[in-house]
Amino acid sequence: MAGLLDDIKETLLMGPGPSCVYDEVYTAIARPTIGHLDPYFIKIMDALKEDLKTIIGTSNRLTMPMSGTGSSGMEACFVNLVEHGDKVLVLTNGVFGKRMEDVAGRLGAQVDSIQFEWGTPVLPDKVAEKLRGETYAIVAVVHAETSTGVCNPVQAVGDLVRPTGALYLVDCVTSLGGIPVRMDEWGADALYSGTQKCLSCPPGLAPLSFSGRALGKLNARKSKVPNWYLDLTMIMNYWEGNTRAYHHTAPINMIYALYAATRRILEEGLDKVYARHRAAHEQLVAGLDKLGLSMYVQKEFRLPMLNAVSIPEGADDAGVRSRLLKEFSIEIGNGLGPLAGKIWRIGLMGHTARPENVDRLLKALAACLKK
Predict the structure, then answer these.
(1) Mean pLDDT throughout 129-140?
(2) Residues linked to residue 191 through DSSP beta bridges, in sequence order
(3) Could you tell me the pLDDT band of residue 242, with boundaries at 50, 70 and 90?
(4) Hey, is 38 helix, strand or coil?
């Protein structure tokens, strides 16, 4: 007697998220729930932290999944690191840079930004020029801008930020598990992601990592962290040490699921996972070209896992997406902000990034455009 759940159909998720979920993850999330302080559950927590460190490319002690979706990771970074009056620079070229500005501003930060055209990357020269004239507590950037399909040069930006003494905050919600993420090499001090993109796990957790410098900033705060639920000074006592202190009831089965997802990725091998995403992207681009469709972002700046496709003149944006979903059980995304009505966003994330899925989409898209 599942009620409305009986009518849920499996959909090929090829939008900006969520992505298709690994079978192993579905199996994991259905395992029996045990207590959030059960010694065996703590063993799973510790193993998951080590898996996340490997995928994130860090040795940071403070590496864990926050309860909540990717946006909780964003908010956790800002609420723990920003104090009223701190100067924060956000490098913005899409929706999620704008969201960073909003979150930092709500905390009383003095928010400054460099605005780049949507569909183009952050330009390190512009960043260097800005940093020569101002001193910031935090510089923040999105690695993979989900709203546009652009990959930003986070390594080059990190090289510029490091000498200034500012903390470097990087959004890896869409990139983690799809392209290399190397937190320590980038000199990033705070990094967050989400489970529902290239990790191919249902939405509900936000992997997060803080460097020693970020922890130093957190521990030296003059005021309490303004958000109790996301206060890492307390949450760390649950995720670390021999004696675990209750903070809130962890989403136990979601942690099972994320552990299964990280295991699946590491067993396949990170290099093979990245190559699979790249191959699916190239297959899609070649197939779209045969249909007369073009990519919105220049080749050297494109993400393999989030593809912005220019909507051809005369095509019915919403109509095509609706038909794909209703007749072919395929979901793709629409454009946001200034790109609304101009692009489709096609996700090739995690388990979705497979040749058979690309073929299925191309055939369905051809049928929709022909009609």
Answers:
(1) 96
(2) 170, 209
(3) confident
(4) coil
User: What distance in Å separates the CA atoms of residue 97 and residue 139, rounded to the nearest whole number?
Assistant: 11
Q: Position 303: which residue type? A: L
Q: CB atoms < 10 A from the CB of 269, how many?
A: 11
Q: Look at residues 61, 113, 116, 265 and name the one whose alpha carbon lies nearest to residue 179.
A: 265
pLDDT score of 3 = 86
Q: Give me the residues paired with residue 167 across strands.
A: 138
Residue 371: predicted pLDDT:
66
The CATH number assigned to the domain holding 286 equals 3.90.1150.10
The answer to pTM > 0.70 is yes
Which of 266, 282, 310 is the endpoint of a domain? 266
Cα atoms in the 13 Å half-sphere on the side-chain side of 339:
24
Beta carbons within 8 Å of 183's beta carbon, 6+ residues apart? 56, 57, 58, 60, 170, 191, 209, 211
Burial class (CB in 10 A: 0-12, 13-18, 19+), 253: middle
* pLDDT one-digit tens code per residue, 258-275: 999 999 999 999 999 999
Nearest to 277 by CA among 207, 203, 195, 174: 174
40 lies in which domain range? 23-266
In which element (H, E) is residue 103 found?
helix 95-106
Q: Terminus-to-terminus CA distance in the chain, angstroms?
A: 40
- Rg over CA atoms, the chain: 21
> What count of other Cβ atoms lies within 10 Å of the Cβ of residue 260?
23
Q: Are 139 and 166 in contact (CB under 8 A)?
A: yes
132 alpha-carbon distance from chain centroid = 30
Instruction: Report DSSP state, residue 101.
Output: H
Task: Identify whether residues 308 and 232 lie together within a single domain.
Answer: no
Length of the chain: 371
Record the tokens describing residue 246, joined without a space.
């209750």
Give, in order, the Cα–Cα distances in Å from 129 to each of 143, 156, 161, 337. Answer: 20, 14, 12, 28
The mean pLDDT value for 284-295 works out to 98
Smallest Cα–Cα separation from 207: which of 172, 159, 165, 161?
172
